[in-house]
Amino acid sequence: MSIESLKFLSSEQVLSLASEFGTPCFVYDQSTLIEKAKQVLAFPNAFGLTARYAMKACPNIAVVKTLTNQGLHIDASSEFEVYRALKAGISGDKIQLTAQEHPADFSIIIDNNVFYNACSIEQIKQYGKANPGGEISIRVNPGMGSGSTNRTNVGGPASSFGIWYEQLDEAIATAKEHQLKITKMHTHIGSGSDPEVWKKVALMSLETVSKIDSIHTLNLGGGYKVARMQEEVATDLQICGEPVKEEFEKFAEETGRQLHLEIEPGTYLVANSGAILTTVVDKINTGKAGYNFLKIDCGMTEVTRPSLYGAQQPIISISKVENRNTEEYIIAGHCCESGDILTPAPGDPEKLQPRELSTTDKGDFLVIEGSGAYCAGMSTKNYNSFPEAAEILIDAKNKEAHLVRKRQTLDQIIQNEILPEFI
Ligand SMILES: Cc1ncc(COP(=O)(O)O)c(C=O)c1O
To answer: Which domain holds residue 82?
Structure first.
């Protein structure tokens, strides 16, 4: 594994941000976000494109609004994400809800013209009861999926996401029962998608669309691979999208139906737009047969991907000391949990894999790159009562740092606790 380098910060910026805002903190780069939004909005399409930001990837309002200001719509994964987007001032007709759970209250969804994407036959029923005669999208599990690990694969028989493709007739009948018009179809097969699998699923989805005349939009989800580590190869959206565009054109020739395309990336838009700044607080050695550990002031409370999936994130050591040698380290997070390791073996969180870094000492900083997606928004929040880290955005115009989420206080962590009188 080659030594990684910073993606959008300079070493001087790391030192000054750490001193101004403290660590741990997330830093997002607005210029990278804008650049990625432009790439996504240029996705090849035959008859129009709506690109949604899967806001679960990083739900901070400054990130969400930067992307929606570029023209992206929103993919929400729970009713609470819908409320959060509405509260951020995003109009309901630019939001689509695709969720595992039914909203407790459909009226907010319906009253705000949020589009509902049913992921099960039960969801069609529930929505049909709340909004008979309305329009609906259906999420279909096409029978195959793709993911860098099983935990990020959301298609195929081992996945509960979407209506199983063989139950399509029942889904259509259920929609009919409630006078629901199915106008959109959705698939999302998983993160880390192989472009070949993605293309195949697009073709399978078009076949399903051909069975439902009322569908005018096909949403092919997200899952485009990014290169966090130097040796990884990112999906080229132009290469990935072009054959799909051709298939849409072929479909139009054969059926006379010009389908609108939707895509909804999360990772692609934000992964490399964010980094975590953390301080090395201790150094431990476990003898000849052991390891050199660097202990840092963040961990699963900021980034769960390595301990959950064995995911690899670039780690860069920043120090005021110049001309350093290199050394191999295991990076241990600050949680009282032996699995809180930031340098697992690729794809295997059970194993440790030492990482070569510039020689690092207590008081130096590590920058964990590739932390814009599924980090701040997907952490073991408040474990060991660690407060949520601050979030900072570097603006595209003046390259200045702005606090976009304050560091949480202990009082905020415990504010909803109640001590009953009998204790
Ligand atoms: C329905 C849906 N759409 C979009 C996404 C975004 O995927 P990614 O962040 O891999 O692009 C996800 C992620 O799980 C998803 O479940």
So the answer is: 30-265
Type and span of the H or E element at 394? strand 390-394
**pLDDT tens track for 351-385:** 999 999 999 999 999 999 999 999 999 999 999 99
CA of 278 to the centre of ligand 1 (A): 27
Looking at the structure, do residues 306 and 204 belong to the same domain, yes or no?
no
**Do 165 and 278 have their domain in common?**
no
For residue range 246-257, what is the model confidence (pLDDT) as tens digits? 999 999 999 999
- Name the residue at shortest CA distance from atom 10 of ligand 1: 223
Q: Do 357 and 228 belong to one domain?
A: no
Domain boundary among 227, 244, 265: 265
pTM for this entry: 0.95
Ligand 1 atom at minimal distance to the Cα of residue 191 = 10
Q: For residue 210, report the distance from its CA to the centre of ligand 1, in Å.
A: 24
Residues 58, 19 within the same domain: no
Alpha helices in 28-78 (DSSP H): 30-41, 61-69
Q: How many distinct structural domains can be found in the chain?
A: 2
Q: Which of 117, 123, 264 to mutate to test the pocket of ligand 1 (most atoms within 8 A of CB)?
A: 264
Cβ(23)–Cβ(298) below 8 Å? yes
**Residue matched to tokens 């998608």:** 193
So what's the pLDDT on residue 9?
Answer: 98
pLDDT at 202: 83
Assess whether pLDDT exceeds 90 at residue 201: no
Across the chain, mean pLDDT equals 94
